[in-house]
Structure formats: structure tokens, C-alpha cells
Write a structure and sequence with these properties.
The structure is a single chain. This protein is of the alpha/beta class. It has a single domain, classed as TIM Barrel, CATH 3.20.20.70. It is built from nine helices and eight strands. It has an eight-stranded mixed beta sheet, with no helix packed on it. The longest helix is centred in the last third of the chain and has 17 residues. The radius of gyration is 21 Å and the shape is globular. The termini are far apart. 37% of the residues are buried. The structure holds S-adenosylmethionine and iron/sulfur cluster (2 copies). S-adenosylmethionine binds next to strand 3 and strand 5.
Length: 319
């Protein structure tokens, strides 16, 4: 008896590098669909900010763990198609240490943005957002981000072409240690050539005993109220929504963060950190593995909740 040979299968398309070596596929990160994601393109940073969640003990963060340019772009493409990613936030470490691959990677996504410490200059990415981090007026900023950083970033922002089509925002991460500089900071940067100011609040670890964290949410409330007042007096400059800021107040905040991120909408964003051997790892959330959701101040948590309620026209502060 003769058996017919099975019809030949079309050969699977394998992407290779310039030497013909097959490119490594990204790890299995589940089958979930994620409209937005963030990628730490490097675990290297030239600064060591006091509040930084990236370099905490429980996170993948070893500077020796790297993904080369070709593999990184390949894996981002695969993950985009696998998870339906439409928006990618390029982060680090300091993403501008890998400027070229970031600019290349941004082309893979319909929407993308960069968050940078601004010390390598401000990239020109017309139509896209570049968020530059500064954590208060000069003295408190430099106490957190390092001596001379405020002036360096100020120069970089003034050196760029303000008409290049890049949307440049400055972001302050508000902590218990720099909160006193809130109003002075707005005064200091209000006339700079930027498109706006954003604020986020500190995300602590579970046993955070640093001077960065408020004892509890009630102690944070007056700072949130001060930011709401600033928004009222600078509505165009400050991008934060009053409705979202109100959700941060202690009487309601836990509804949006939960004790362990249960209702948190930021967890729909796929975080890609570089772990051992240069493999992408997905930590608990964009802020890493060891986070205290009950005291989380990530503006995005409250802003997404606010927008979803607006869409559904739910009453915002119902009992
Ligand atoms: C981790 S940094 C990476 C990108 C870049 N190196 C920079 O500093 O902008 C991204 C943003 O997260 C903020 N950030 C860092 N640690 C934080 C924390 N524990 N809570 C809230 N925001 C934090 C930084 O201030 C910065 O605006
Ligand atoms: S510059 Fe950014 S990544 Fe580097 S230590 Fe500061 S917050 Fe962290
Ligand atoms: S730490 Fe904040 S952003 Fe992360 S899961 Fe908890 S509530 Fe969400």
C-alpha cells in the first residue's frame, strides 16, 4: 500500500538578523489584549532619583540584562500583534540612552510617547508626546534628581525648536518630601516653552518608611487640594483634571486602587521590564512588583477611572 505524502506546509516566516540568525521570540505573557503598554528599553540610568520605583529590590532591573536593537524591535512588533497594542510608552531607566532604537520603535505603534529625565536633550517626535520629569523647583528637584539637573533640563527645554510639532509636557512626581514646592514649581516653569504640566503622586512600597510617603491618605489630602487650586488658577497650563484629582481624596481613593489593585485600570496596561538574560518580564503593574496600592498616587489610575465614569455618565462621588 502506498501512502500519499501530506501536502507540504508553507514554511513559517522566521525573522532573522543580518547574519541569518533567527530572532528570539518574546516570552509568553498570556493571551490578554492590551491597548496600551510600556517598555523599559534599558535598565541603565544616569541618575538615581530617591523616589524611583524602577530600581527597587523586587523589580527586574539589572543593568547587565539587555536586549539588542534588532531583537527589541522584533519583539515589540510580535507583542504588538499578539496583544493588540496601539499605544506604547517608551521608558527606562533612561530611554534616551537608546535614543535611536526608541525613535525606530515609536514607528511601530499608531500612538506612542516617551518619558525622559531630559538630561540627554529633548527628542523631536512631531505629533507625539515627550514627558520630561522634574520634581519641583531647583533645590528640591536637585535633592531628588541630583545636583545641576534642574538647570540642565531647563537648558534642554529652551534649546529645542518649540515649533517642531512635539508635544512637550513636564511631569512632577509629588512626594511628602517635595510637596512644599508645588506652587513655586508652577511659577518657575509656567513661562517655559512647553505644552503643559502634569502631576502624579508617589507610589510607595508596602513597607515604605521613607520620608517620601504620607502617613496615610488623609495626610495627602491637603496636597491634592492645593493641586486642585493650582489647576483652577492655571487651567490651560496644568493638564490634570479636577474630576480625576477629586478621586484621589481619602474618602474615595481606595475604590479605584483597591488594597491590591483589584479595580485599578492601569493594570490593563502591559508593562514590559527587562529581566534576567534580557527576557521581557511582566511585573505586577507599571510601577513594578512591590507596590502599596492602598497608598498609590499614580494619576493615571484616577484619570482612567474618571474618564470611564464620564463615558458611562456615572455619578462620580456616589456613596
Ligand atoms: C521611572 S521614570 C523613567 C523615565 C525617565 N528616566 C524619567 O525619569 O522620566 C518615569 C516617571 O516615573 C516617575 N516615578 C519614579 N518613581 C516613582 C514613584 N515611586 N511614584 C511615582 N512616580 C514615580 C518619575 O518621576 C518619572 O516621571
Ligand atoms: S531618571 Fe528616571 S529612571 Fe532614572 S532614577 Fe530617576 S526616575 Fe528612575
Ligand atoms: S500600585 Fe497603583 S497603579 Fe499599580 S496596581 Fe496598585 S493601584 Fe494600580
Amino acid at each position: 500500500m502506498t501512502t500519499k505524502a501530506p501536502p507540504s506546509q508553507p514554511a513559517a516566516h522566521v525573522e532573522t538578523d543580518e547574519t541569518g540568525r533567527a530572532l528570539r521570540s518574546p516570552p509568553d505573557l498570556g493571551t490578554g489584549q492590551h491597548r496600551s503598554a510600556l517598555v523599559n528599553v534599558t535598565n541603565v540610568c544616569n541618575l538615581s532619583c530617591k523616589h524611583c520605583f524602577v530600581f527597587r529590590d523586587e523589580n527586574p532591573k539589572d543593568a547587565r540584562d539587555k536586549i539588542d536593537d534588532v531583537t527589541l524591535l522584533h519583539q515589540l512588533r510580535v507583542l504588538r500583534d499578539r496583544h493588540g497594542i496601539e499605544f506604547m510608552l517608551f521608558m527606562g531607566g533612561e530611554p534616551m540612552i537608546r535614543r535611536d532604537v526608541v525613535l525606530e520603535g515609536m514607528k511601530l505603534f499608531p500612538m506612542s510617547a516617551i518619558v525622559t529625565n531630559g538630561t540627554y536633550g529633548i527628542p523631536s517626535v512631531p505629533g507625539r508626546i515627550v514627558t520630561v520629569s522634574l520634581d519641583g523647583p531647583e533645590a528640591p528637584n536637585d535633592a531628588i534628581r541630583g545636583e545641576g539637573v534642574f538647570q540642565k533640563v531647563k537648558e534642554a527645554i529652551h534649546a529645542r525648536d518649540p515649533d517642531d510639532g512635539t508635544v512637550v509636557l513636564i511631569q512632577m512626581a509629588v512626594t511628602h518630601a517635595n510637596e512644599s514646592g508645588l506652587e513655586e514649581f508652577v511659577e518657575a516653569v509656567r513661562d517655559w516653552p512647553i505644552d503643559g504640566l502634569t502631576f502624579t503622586f508617589y507610589v510607595p512600597t508596602r513597607d515604605d518608611r521613607t520620608d517620601l510617603v504620607w502617613k496615610d491618605l488623609r495626610e495627602r489630602d491637603p496636597v491634592v487640594e492645593r493641586l486642585i487650586a493650582l489647576k483652577r488658577s492655571h487651567p490651560g497650563l496644568i493638564k490634570s483634571n479636577i474630576g480625576a484629582l477629586e478621586l484621589m481624596l481619602s474618602d474615595v481613593a481606595l475604590r479605584y486602587t483597591g488594597e491590591r489593585g483589584e479595580p485599578c485600570r492601569v493594570r490593563n496596561t502591559l508593562p514590559l521590564f527587562i529581566g534576567r538574560g534580557g527576557e521581557f518580564e511582566r511585573p505586577f503593574c507599571c510601577y513594578g512588583n512591590d507596590v502599596d496600592c492602598a497608598r498609590c498616587g499614580a494619576y493615571g489610575v484616577f484619570n482612567t477611572a474618571y474618564h470611564q465614569m464620564q463615558d458611562r455618565r456615572e455619578p462620580m462621588l456616589q456613596g
